[in-house]
Amino acid sequence: MDQELVRSGPAQGVESDRKRSWRKRARKRFKRVGRKALNRVSRVAGRESLVGDRPILDAKDFPWIPRLEEGTPLIQSELAAVLHYRDSLPKLHELQREQYRISADDKWRAFVLYGWDYEAEEGAHLCPETSRLVRQIPGLRTAFFSILDPGAHIPEHRGAIKGLLRGQLALVVPRDRERCVLWLEGVPHLWQEGRVLVFDDTYLHEVRNETDEERVVLILHFDRPMRWRGRLLHRALLLALRRTSFIKSARANHAEWARRFRRDREASRRTVSPVAREEGVDEASTRRGPLAAGQGRASGRRGE
């Protein structure tokens, strides 16, 4: 029996290599076909757009923006609770390995509130009011806090889906904001705390934070307003995309991170002393304490 297994070993290895090679070629063909389909849908989305086809879009075309901007102080207070767990938050490429090229310096972290038609439990727990506000955005697809460390650089890249637009609500902007810049098609754009910037991320863009402070924005991906033909193709594309590993693996990775996060938070709660419990020191007050000074500085910059 053992001799038969030994003899069959190399043959099985060759067969396994052939299968891997076939799968690799199949993935390449699938990606080529997918890119061509994306390009066709993007051309239609640009033509069918009701808000123009340019890098920066006018915030006045999106009636939900004023309400979101009015909620900035509330969102900032909930962000403070999230930033208490800063070191436990996932790096972007840990959620989507496809993002490794643009987040490989480990200085870009994310906290997901909403992703591809599902609400993250941790987001709803730590940020209930922020979650409520973003749910009111028409055609919302993703929402997450994007946290860039000092010195972070997101290299030039393009988004893939023309039918989606990106909004960024600035929550924490470095004092030297001229050195924390979004470059879009070679043109610099600065964040202003409490204001939403809307742009088409299929245009070439990069981000540089050349300050010694972190930058935090609430990133939103939502459906571009389009005529019926554009909407129809866009919905078909998203339906197909949900069936790919791009979405499935991201959700699985986030679920795995969430399990670890809940476990660590539970362990942290157990370390609170009995005296502290009797005095009413709960998890929320513990979270808020270390960030009070940071919130004060952020509020002081409003209106820059």
Keywords:
alpha+beta, disordered N terminus, four-stranded antiparallel sheet, 304 residues, 10 strands, six-stranded antiparallel sheet
Topology:
Elements: H1 2-48, E1 56-57, H2 65-70, H3 72-83, H4 92-95, H5 100-103, E2 108-115, H6 121-126, H7 128-135, E3 140-148, E4 153-157, E5 164-172, E6 180-184, E7 187-190, E8 196-199, E9 205-209, E10 215-223, H8 228-241, H9 245-270, H10 274-278, H11 283-288, H12 292-300
Describe this structure in words.
The chain is of the alpha+beta class and 304 residues long. The protein has a domain at 56-264: B-lactam Antibiotic, Isopenicillin N Synthase, Chain (Jelly Rolls, Sandwich), CATH 2.60.120.330. It is built from twelve helices and ten strands. The chain has helices spanning 2-48, 65-70, 72-83, 92-95, 100-103, 121-126, 128-135, 228-241, 245-270, 274-278, 283-288, 292-300; strands at 56-57, 108-115, 140-148, 153-157, 164-172, 180-184, 187-190, 196-199, 205-209, 215-223. A six-stranded antiparallel β-sheet has the order 1-8-5-10-3-2. Strands 4-9-6-7 form a four-stranded antiparallel β-sheet. A hairpin with a 2-residue loop joins strand 6 and strand 7 (187-190).
